[in-house]
Task: structure prediction
Amino acid sequence: MVGMMPYYIWLVVSALLSLYGVITYWPNYSPDDEMVLFNDVATAIFFTPSFFILFLSMILQAAILGLKRYRAFRRVLYILIYPANVALFYVITMNLMPISTIIILVLAGSVVAVLHYFLSYLFKN
Result:
């Protein structure tokens, strides 16, 4: 159990930082907003990676920890989580950005989430 402690610390710190990034940098545009460019940059740099780490990588980590005996269900969960994340991200950002920008952000966020997932896997083993 002591060998798994860095893994659990990594998960807690990752979850807290990602949650902070999602809450703090939630795309919130208003008609009289003077800082539209800042909001776009904050969405791209902070919100998108935090969102995908929290809702993709962390959910997959929870599935690994919680569903150890249900391999078939985990595989179905792996397949369903990614499209659900992309759809949720699209719903959040669809009125704020053009679709081409959303696609680029989804790809960038996916790369960050996959890197986080594999780094978490390395901590676990």
